[in-house]
Design a protein that fits this description.
single chain; alpha+beta; 8-stranded antiparallel sheet; 13 strands
């Protein structure tokens, strides 16, 4: 992801439902809004953000007009733990990081042509995929099928809905010659095809295929790689699947926006940053 725009909350071993309940309490009285709660990292830190509908994707402001700092501060207090607001570009190595400690003290830092410290990179790289999509508005959800206003994601969840047939960017190209919604020729490497979508912060299914028809599918959520599949590699370790994807010489690509990772595709536990470095032959960060 070329630009990070993240709210990270330390929730420890508390389940996603506790996060949903806390957000509903903080935003009590708002008329509408969908919350995305991501899986917690091994350190118990998870990303939260809002979207315009139930599907993980483009982040929108806090419903009701509350500022992001006020929202994150109020949510953090429900867990008596740490939180981070991160706005940072990996291209310019510039941005701002606001950290709120468990005691409520605030540490705000600005970065100019400077790499993020390892401890902050660890927070970024530990982000998990969306675990629950929850309605936080007053009254019933504006979409059907949610259980107590929550759509579950993962193995125990019902199959996620796909965009309707004829949707631009899904099964129809956004415009003539666009690979978003239809296959188009691609002359670059496999890793750069993936990196491009990561940099754009895309949510959807990227398919790359070589001249023989062999290919791979990469599932993304807001520029994070959450699932990978390659032809002929079922049951293999994620590292081996990723190596096969990077070895492909694709001749065409297609991005289908709005496609959520299917249940039968394992949730990826490796960080996107690590996968891109490995794919480019770079040394992993210590």
């Amino acid at each position: 992801m070329a630009h990070y725009d993240l709210w990270m909350i330390e929730t420890g071993e508390r389940p996603a439902d506790d996060v949903v309940a806390a957000v509903r309490e903080v935003l009590s009285g708002v008329t509408s809004g969908w919350l995305q709660v991501c899986a917690a990292s091994r350190s118990g830190i998870r990303e939260v953000y809002f979207t315009s509908d139930s599907q993980p994707g483009e982040k929108v402001p806090v419903p009701g007009g509350m500022t992001e700092e006020a929202f994150v501060t109020a949510l953090r207090s429900r867990f008596a733990a740490r939180a981070w607001i991160i706005h940072y570009s990996t291209e310019t190595q510039a941005g701002n990081v606001l950290k709120i400690d468990a005691d409520g003290s605030v540490d705000a830092r600005t970065f100019e042509s400077e790499e993020l410290p390892a401890r902050i990179r660890g927070v970024l790289e530990g982000r998990g995929p969306v675990e629950a999509s929850a309605w936080v508005g007053a009254g019933p959800p504006d979409e059907e099928g949610a259980e107590h206003g929550i759509f579950r994601r993962g193995y125990d969840a019902p199959p996620p809905p796909r965009p309707k047939s004829g949707t631009l960017g899904y099964d129809k190209p956004l415009e003539d010659g666009s690979y978003v919604g239809a296959f188009q020729a691609w002359e670059g490497s496999a890793i750069e095809a993936v990196a491009e979508e990561v940099g754009h912060g895309e949510t959807g299914e990227l398919t790359i295929s070589d001249a023989t028809g062999s290919g791979a599918r990469i599932y993304l959520e807001r520029g994070r790689i959450v699932g990978i599949v390659v032809d002929g590699a079922r049951g293999q370790l994620p590292q081996d699947v990723w190596a096969k994807i990077c070895a492909l010489v694709p001749s065409k690509r297609r991005l289908r926006r709005g496609v959520i990772q299917p249940r039968h595709v394992d949730r990826l536990q490796l960080s996107t940053e690590h996968l891109l470095r490995v794919g480019r032959g770079e040394e992993p960060r210590r």
